């Protein structure tokens, strides 16, 4: 009998360290990573302070907090969508953005796309790509039945 046999059961920290070692040596104890060719990200409806037609003539600091929040939401949502997998993206990455409006107010797709600029920057940073590679960008709009409003972004694959 050794000293390890008499020790207490492993703590959560010990279990986490063992999982990390298993992952590093790829022993099969953890689900293997997959290579994804596309991801789908759902974001909340963009803040009205980010709409270009609403911020004309206002100081840039008035929209800075909304931009920072949108950038962080985009980055965190992208990281969550990818998870532990890797993303294999081509040189030109097709992007489809679907705006699910919370109401029947008519909105210009160009303004909606511009309001998503900070979110797209956050997504690109989380994926480790330059957002100039998002070509072509397809815009669409639908009406949200729950009247909450959201934006669905499909990146890569056959968008």
What does the radius of gyration come to? 21 Å
Number of domains: 2
Amount of beta strand: 15-25%
CATH architecture of the largest domain: 2-Layer Sandwich
| Topology, number of strands | 6
The CATH superfamily of the largest domain is identified as: Holliday junction resolvase RusA
Measured as a percent range, the helix fraction is 25-40%
Structural class: alpha/beta
Widest β-sheet, arrangement of strands: 2-6-4-5
Structure notes:
With 159 residues, this protein is α/β, with parallel strands linked by helices. The protein has 2 domains: 1-31, no CATH class; 35-156, 2-Layer Sandwich (60s Ribosomal Protein L30, Chain: A). 36% of the residues lie in helices and 20% in strands. It contains 5 helices and 6 strands. A 4-stranded mixed sheet has the order 2-6-4-5. A two-stranded parallel ribbon has the order 1-3. α3 packs across α5. It is globular. The N and C termini lie far apart (61 Å).
What attributes characterize this protein structure?
single chain, 60s Ribosomal Protein L30, Chain: A, 2 domains, two-stranded parallel ribbon, 5 helices, disordered N terminus
Could you outline the blueprint of secondary structure elements for this entry?
Elements: H1 3-6, H2 12-25, E1 35-36, E2 38-44, H3 61-82, E3 86-87, E4 95-101, H4 109-115, H5 117-127, E5 137-143, E6 150-156
Parallel strand pairs: 1-3, 4-5
Antiparallel strand pairs: 2-6, 4-6
